[in-house]
């Protein structure tokens, strides 16, 4: 009796060790992918293409795809929104500048790019796995779901863009800002010669 109990305990310890090792290795590769956003997003596009092909060939799982689309839309809103919403909170140091004389404060996202990418990739993988279980294949008329999602997307993006215009922020930056400096009179006169 004790031997059987001991085997269960050793199996539990082995599983715990395997899980810890797997988690450590997964985190290692996740950390290594951090400085490579283009590669990460290309990989996610490949996963999305595989998912789309799976749904297309199976001709089903439209509810799963709709749920995935709503989730991605929710993530997109978090990605495009500032950490501190000027409509909801008035904080002294962390608000967006509202006048030209205000000090420049960099745009800080509510959902950072890495977490945005990771959440989308995880959601695509979960949705892909769900396509192998017929319980999730609820029969629906997919054009209605697609139309409703497009309307929801347009209305949500309109609201987000109006918010960006009202509070004068752009959630994207085009690389590192570089200071070119002022041209001195000597260097400009030398270039005229």
TrEMBL record:
Cellular component terms (Gene Ontology): endoplasmic reticulum; Golgi membrane
Identification of the protein by name: Protein RER1
GO biological process entries: protein retention in ER lumen; retrograde vesicle-mediated transport, Golgi to endoplasmic reticulum
Membrane protein topology class: Multi-pass membrane protein
Any single Pfam family the record assigns to this protein: Rer1
Broad class of where this protein is predominantly found: membrane
Function description: Involved in the retrieval of endoplasmic reticulum membrane proteins from the early Golgi compartment.
Keywords for this protein: Membrane, Transmembrane, Transmembrane helix
Record-annotated membrane-spanning stretches: 38-57, 63-81, 140-157
Subcellular localization: Membrane
Domain of life, source organism: Eukaryota
Family: Belongs to the RER1 family.
């Amino acid at each position: 009796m004790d031997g059987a109990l001991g085997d269960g305990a050793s199996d539990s310890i082995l599983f715990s060790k395997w899980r810890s090792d797997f988690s450590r290795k997964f985190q290692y590769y996740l950390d290594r992918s951090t400085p490579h956003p283009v590669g990460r997003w290309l990989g996610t596009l490949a996963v999305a293409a595989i998912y789309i092909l799976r749904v297309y060939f199976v001709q089903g799982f439209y509810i799963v795809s709709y749920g995935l689309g709503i989730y991605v839309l929710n993530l997109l809103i978090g990605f495009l929104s500032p950490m501190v919403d000027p409509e909801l909170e008035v904080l002294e140091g962390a608000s967006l500048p509202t006048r030209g004389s205000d000090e420049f404060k960099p745009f800080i996202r509510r959902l950072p790019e890495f977490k945005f990418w990771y959440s989308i990739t995880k959601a695509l993988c979960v949705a892909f796995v769900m396509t192998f279980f017929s319980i999730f294949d609820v029969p629906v008329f997919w054009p209605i779901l697609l139309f409703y999602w497009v309307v929801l997307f347009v209305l949500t993006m309109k609201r987000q863009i109006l918010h960006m215009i009202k509070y004068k922020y752009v959630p994207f930056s085009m690389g590192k800002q570089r200071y070119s400096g002022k041209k001195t009179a000597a260097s400009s006169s030398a270039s005229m010669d």
